[in-house]
Amino acid sequence: MWTPSIRGIRELAVAAALFALPVLAKGDPREKVAREKYGKATKAYDLGKFEEALELFSEAYEAKELPGFLFNIAQCHRQLGDFERARFFYKRYLDLSPKRPKNAPQVEQLIAECDARIAERRKLAELEAERKRAEAEAEKKRAEADAAARRAEEIRAQASANATLLVAEAEAAKKRAEAAAAELELAKRREAEAQAEVEQAKNASEAEAAKARAERAAHEAEEARRRAEREADAARTAVAALESKASDTPSNAGTRTLSAYAPTNPAGSLPPAAVSPVPGGERPRSRFWLVPTIAGVALGGASAYFLVDTVNAHNALVNPDTRVTEIPDAVTVRNGGAQSQMLGLALGGAAVAAFIGAILAYPSDDAESTAFVGPAGTGVSRTWSHP
Question: How far apart are CA 138 and CA 11, in angstroms?
């Protein structure tokens, strides 16, 4: 591609600008201003001051509208890197020239060069925008990955802490259960030793003393057994709670029971005896079943009232002896009967539900009594099952 030199381009522009000067009137002030601006612009262009040259060439064109000045303005824009403005003024130079200029082929080549540079810049801008979008997307993904890693680390640390706590609690419960079992074993050994002392006593006083020691040992053994049971229950409760926490499964509710204890003999009046069940027992008095029973009776009465009203409305509609004047609005009667029917059925269902609640609230006759020896003497424990 041929590229004209700055000096050759400037000379072509000067020739084009001076070509029309002879046709101006002598002493035309516009010619003087145009010549002064043109001289200063040429000097600024030669010194590389393209912005100043651009401004002076523009003022010269405003003083005298010669197409050659447009070519010089386009050259200044090209030197400043503004190829879109340069292309615009090259086209204006060709369009406003009275006839095709001699340098038209070179100007067209400059226009093509500007088009190529514009396309190249647009391509670079698109690539730069795409690069920035890719970098932003990568940065976003890195941030998301870092956040996910932090969350995973927090979850892992929390799980590790929970596992450590669960193991420590289970270990403590196990130790408590072992200590209770050891205490029970020691109490049993002491009881056996006391029984042996009773058998080995030579006289009544020694036998009585040995018997008293045996009773005390039996009492201590019973206390130790109860403590062991409490510790075992506490250990089982702790393990169940830990398993519930680990599985996040709610425990099922148990059956409600009522218990009563009544001492029958003072302490020490009966020898130690094994616990044995005693049949029978009187159930406790309860009035909770009266409330649903009364509600069932009231709801049943209301249901019967609405159902009777429904039957009366139906008979009034289907009775052939009923005159039209006696039923001013049959639709109203029919709708009222349907509403009464629905209310009666609903109240009847509620009454049935109330009676079922009363039956469930009424305590059952199943009772279990247990005779045992406690710290206050021999007693009876009775337990009744309720729904």
Answer: 55
